[in-house]
Amino acid sequence: MIYGVGIDIVKVERMREVVERWGERFLNKVFTEGEIAYCYGKKNPFPSLAVRFAAKEAFIKAIGSVKPFALADIEIVSRESGRPEINPQGRLRELLKGDVFTKAHLSLSHEREYGIACVVIEKEGK
Questions:
Q1: Nearest-5° angle of CA 99, CA 103, CA 107?
Q2: Does the active-site annotation cover 61?
Q3: Given CA atoms 15, 16, 18, 22 in this order, what sign does their dihedral have?
Q4: What is each CA distance from 50 to 35, 67, 99, 100, 126, in whole angstroms?
Q5: CA 125, chain centre distance (Å)
Q6: I want to staple 55 with a disulfide (CB 3.0 to 4.6 A). Which of 6, 33, 38, 117 is the partner?
Q7: 9/65 Cα distance (integer angstroms)
Q8: What is the CA radius of gyration of the chain?
Q9: What is the pLDDT of residues 53-96, one digit of tens each?
Q10: CB 90 within 8 A of CB 72
Q11: Would you call 31 helix, strand, or coil by DSSP?
Q12: Residue 97 is among the residues annotated as catalytic for this protein
């Protein structure tokens, strides 16, 4: 059964502006070391950063959580196939223990100006 759906879109230029203004302070607050390394391994890191930020926001919308956790606790990883996945970290991992959801589906896309993410959360039972 579907527990929640979230979608978010981020303008790539806005992500570039935020990173240029706040630098590592912003990056380390929002992204994991692995996410930063992945994005900066690209010729242009900003589309990848934007789409990962959108994924974090979409995930929050999908779970509808009112319990606080850091954005960096929502790690977006790519399998060898390129398929993106949500890898909960820190406080989020602790909050998700139990039966909050059984599976999270994540789709990412970006083009020149925008990054977009959609998350669908499944939960067993009612």
A1: 145
A2: yes
A3: positive
A4: 11, 24, 30, 27, 34
A5: 26
A6: 117
A7: 19
A8: 14
A9: 999 999 999 988 767 889 999 999 999 998 999 999 998 888 78
A10: yes
A11: coil
A12: no
Three-state DSSP at 66 gives coil
pLDDT category at 7 given cuts 50, 70, 90 is: very high
Domain 2-122 homologous superfamily, CATH: 4'-phosphopantetheinyl transferase domain (3.90.470.20)
Pairing verdict, β 84-88 and 114-122: unpaired
Q: Which position among 11, 61, 105, 123 bears the catalytic label?
A: 61
Q: Give the pLDDT confidence score for residue 6 in this predicted structure.
A: 97
Catalytic residue among 11, 103, 105, 110: 110
